[in-house]
Amino acid sequence: MAWKTIDRITPVVDKDAAPLLSEAVRAKIRSFFERYESKRAVLLPALHIVQDALGSVPLQAMVEVAELLEIHPSDVMDTASFYTQFWTHNKGAKLIMACRSLSCEVMGGNAVLEELKRRLGIDEHGTTPDGKYSLVTEECLAGCDHAPCLLINEKLHKRVKPEDIAKILADAENDQIDVERSDLFDAPAGAVAGSAGAPSGAKEVPQEGGDATDGSGTPG
Ligand code: FES
Predict the structure, then answer these.
(1) Residue 7 and residue 15: Cα distance in Å, rounded?
(2) What is the fold of 17-89+188-215?
(3) Which of 34, 149, 157, 195 could connect to 24 by a Cys-Cys bridge, CB 3.0–4.6 Å?
(4) pLDDT 10s digits, 121-137
(5) Which one of 100, 106, 112, 140 would you pick to mutate in the ligand 1 pocket, going by the greatest count of ligand atoms within 8 A of its CB?
(6) Where do the domains of the chain lie?
């Protein structure tokens, strides 16, 4: 067996670039410090907060998070790249997860995935040019008895057929669930400063009890 060498030169972050994280995002991350014994332990909430604000966790944001948490940027990258939850490139407002596990495959999941790719004009891990949808495949979505399944943000679509895809995509509420959103990643009341200086394209960070997510219930 021969090892294949892959050129993995990491892009360099421009040290002179303007900060990517707004003061509101930084304040929200800092507000979690009191909940944990160390700043390092705030890494996962910080990544959620950054992705919720920017739509992804680019390299520069990883460096800025590392500075805030007083850890090495490679520690941030290790964690961000371990979880498929975090995106280092643009993620659509709605994430479609097509199940690729056995029950769904047997029940026609591949045809559903192909129809999704055809209708959206993207491949796996792609994002539509309008930023509306991203598409990935995932292992079992815990709906095997309703195979084949799709998850759009947190809404599970059951027994999906290729001919259902157009209707599902046309439904503006195809990601809406009848469950209250979690406030797990909301900052404690009064902990977040104003959002002045937020980078363009960033979502507003929720203030006291507010909701700047897409209503899916989970940041990112
Ligand atoms: S195999 Fe698809 S939901 Fe379980």
Answers:
(1) 23
(2) Arc Repressor Mutant, subunit A (1.10.10)
(3) 195
(4) 999 989 999 999 999 99
(5) 140
(6) 17-89+188-215, 94-170
- Fold of domain 94-170: Glutaredoxin (3.40.30)
Q: What backbone torsions phi and psi does residue 68 show, to the nearest 5 degrees?
A: -60, -40
- Calculate how far, in angstroms, residue 156's C-alpha sits from the geometric centre of ligand 1: 11
Q: Partners of 136 in the beta sheet?
A: 97
Closest CA to 150 of 135, 128, 171, 167: 135
Give the number of the atom of ligand 1 that is nearest the alpha carbon of residue 99. 2
Give pTM, 2 decimals.
0.66
Token pair recorded at residue 51:
């992705």
Q: Output 88 or 187, whichever has higher pLDDT.
A: 88
State whether the beta carbon of 97 lies less than 6 angstroms from ligand 1: no
Decide: 140 in ligand 1 pocket, CB within 6 A. Answer: yes
pLDDT at site 195: 42
What's the pLDDT band for 212 if we cut at 50, 70, 90?
very low
